[in-house]
Amino acid sequence: MVRTASKAIIIQESKILVIKKEDEIGPFYILPGGGQEHGENLHENLKRECMEEIGVEVEIDDLIFVRDYVGGNHGFDWDREFHQLDLMFLCRIKEGQPAPAAGIIPDDGQIGVEWLPVKNLTDYRLYPMSMLPSIMELESGKHPEKIYLGDVN
Which of 4, 34, 81, 130 could bridge across to 49 with cysteines, CB 3.0–4.6 Å? Predict the structure, then answer.
């Protein structure tokens, strides 16, 4: 079964808002968002996930990237049977919201919320890594040519 998830790309003052996690190698980062629940549309899903993980309401703009993640294709035993379709939307933090911080239901393994400088994204492990050049172009005003990223990590 394929799990559908929505993710937020929030860029403000040349920085992108991310969730910080850590593994045996060190810190890594993911976009806010997560799995769609039965009966939710993608926007409802993303608004709920952002409130849970980063503690702010978001306004959702365009769908900007789509990616598959088929666990068995990426060499990890722990998620061999996992398949997720991520739909990534440009978002803005709604006016009058507090500074983003861990929300009411942080993501599993979440240790923080950070703003990473877009121009230095390749210095960080932000997944999926294949979208980093496109995010860097997006921040400089260029619209990505490729929306479907494929089965990438």
Answer: 34
